[in-house]
Write a structure and sequence with these properties.
By secondary structure, the protein is an all-alpha fold. It has a domain of 52 residues. Helix content is 53%, strand content 0%. It contains four helices and no strands. Helix 2 runs parallel beside helix 4. The longest helix has 20 residues.
Length: 99
């Protein structure tokens, strides 16, 4: 039986992830799932998406590791999200850009 505060993790679909790891990915806490949604970069222009992408890949890699869960993982993901947001803001045109 699944604990009410846990949600089933979708099967990882990133290239290179072995099927044995897929079988060991446990359920994900809702707080972790909530933070992960902010790493989506599909809405960004290509230039900003390139800045955002590595942060999202790292976030999902951490969340998919068996044994990593709970408050410390959520804190790590929130701090990574802060770093991603700052990097994307740093890549925004300043008005001085000629592009």
């Amino acid at each position: 039986m699944t604990a009410p505060h846990l949600t089933a993790r979708p099967a990882p679909t990133r290239p290179g992830l072995s099927s044995s790891l897929e079988a060991t990915v446990p359920e994900r806490h809702p707080a972790v799932a909530n933070v992960l949604r902010f790493f989506d970069h599909s809405h960004l222009p290509p230039r900003l998406a390139e800045v955002s992408r590595p942060f999202g890949e790292l976030a999902h890699d951490l969340a998919d590791r068996p044994g990593l869960d709970g408050p410390e993982l959520t804190t790590a993901l929130r701090r990574l999200l802060d770093a991603k947001d700052a990097a994307v803001r740093a890549a925004l045109p300043t008005g001085k850009d000629t592009a």
